[in-house]
Amino acid sequence: MAFDRIMDLFHGYWAYLTILVVALATFNALVKFFSDRAFGQQDFKISLFALIVTHIQVLLGFVMYFSHPSNGFGAIRNPELSMGDIMGSADLRLFTVEHPLVMLLSVIFITIGYSKHKKQLTSKAKFKSLAIFYTIAFILIISRIPWKHWLMGSH
Questions:
Q1: Are 155 and 13 in contact (CB under 8 A)?
Q2: Which domains does the chain have, with CATH numbers?
Q3: Best label site of 6, 97, 103, 120, fewest CB within 10 Å?
Q4: Claim: this prediction has a pTM higher than 0.85
Q5: Dist. CA 46–CA 24, nearest whole Å
Q6: What digits encode the pLDDT tens for the residues 133-149?
Q7: Cβ atoms within 10 A of the Cβ of 2, count?
Q8: How far apart are CA 120 and CA 77, in angstroms?
């Protein structure tokens, strides 16, 4: 099996875990923020795990972006395609510009939220930081998943 196909499969299946964990961390932060619960070790672990799985996913994405022969940087390097061609094709634009950029932004938001929550002194403030930044990240992630390709099994 070719390297790009293996990476494509791993990135696709790791995405299931990433979405599940980010959804859990987001839901946890929102529920506990609005219910005024104390921030505990379990909450720390959930938010940390979301940070870790998203960073791993973005690293896998970077490898794919720069190694895939026809998408990502492969499309940009293709002498037969101009940026106009890429931007004019919904699939090429998604895989070359939109998906990578928005996923990188989502990881940045998760990183900021995680970093900010550690500096907060109260549970309410910790959950607020996580809820705001993880929710933004989760919405961004959901907005730019290549659903058509992913659900059809062509990760």
A1: yes
A2: 3-151 (1.20.120)
A3: 6
A4: yes
A5: 8
A6: 999 999 999 999 888 77
A7: 8
A8: 45
